[in-house]
Amino acid sequence: MTTLPATTDSLITSLSRNVPRVPRHAVQRRLALGILAGSAVTVALVVTLLGVRADLGAAVRGFPFWMKLIYSLAIAIGALAATARLARPGIPDAQATRRLWPLAVPVLLLGGIVIGELAGSPAREWAAMWLGHSSKACPWLVLGLAVPLFCGLLWSFQRLAPTRLRLTGALAGLSAGGWAATLYCLHCPEASALFVLTWYTLGMLLACAAGALAGPKLLRW
């Protein structure tokens, strides 16, 4: 076995002396703080610029509201969990990408609801179900509302150590988009699963793409 030079041995000893213990779940807490800070700003934007839907009290007693909220929240939490894993250096590529499959579950489940929705509706109503009243604005509003949340996650990463910057940025953007879509439910009156699957998902994917572009530049350490 090769013996380390005394100077190298001393250096290792000095670097490892008095190293503070990292609290358990420190990464998760850091990310949660970033999400909470971003959510506060996003909620303020929804309330002041878009407005909370007037029938929110009645909407929360119906299926469409919870369908939208659970779908976007599942994407947000799944992407955030994947982001937390990538915040630690040394995770093998295969392990990092293999654990992304849960993100497909809410998409597939909502797709099943869409099939049932279309099967129970006349074909002449499908276009209206797909476009709703806000299809042109919805993806861009989700993207815009995701900006404060993405900034909150960037703050979280100041004390973390991601090494796959583009993938981490993409997942952080997807998580921000999912949280933004969840909070957008406070305003959005659309009730079609087909609308949600198309336009909510597009908004989240736009946030994901923006995060992938920004990651290599903003997540360096």
Describe the structure.
This protein has 221 residues and is mainly alpha-helical. It has one domain. It has helices at residues 6-16, 26-50, 56-59, 63-86, 93-98, 104-119, 126-131, 138-156, 165-184, 193-218. α4 (63-86) packs parallel to α10 (193-218). The longest helix is centred in the C-terminal third of the chain and has 26 residues, at 193-218. The radius of gyration is 21 Å and the shape is globular. The model has no long low-confidence stretch (mean pLDDT 87).
Q: Helices, strands, pairings?
A:
Blueprint: H1 6-16, H2 26-50, H3 56-59, H4 63-86, H5 93-98, H6 104-119, H7 126-131, H8 138-156, H9 165-184, H10 193-218
Helix pairs in contact: 2-8, 2-9, 4-9, 4-10, 8-9, 8-10, 9-10
Structure summary:
By secondary structure, the chain is an all-alpha fold. The radius of gyration is 21 Å and the shape is globular.
Q: Which series of helices and strands comes N to C?
A: HHHHHHHHHH
Q: Estimate the global geometry from the Cα principal axes.
A: globular
What is the structural class?
mainly alpha
Largest sheet: number of strands, sense, barrel closure: none
| pLDDT averaged residue by residue | 87
| Helix residue percentage | over 70%
Number of domains: 1
Strand percent estimate: under 5%
Low-confidence stretches: none
Oligomer state equals: single chain
Report how far apart the termini are: 34 Å
Number of helices: 10
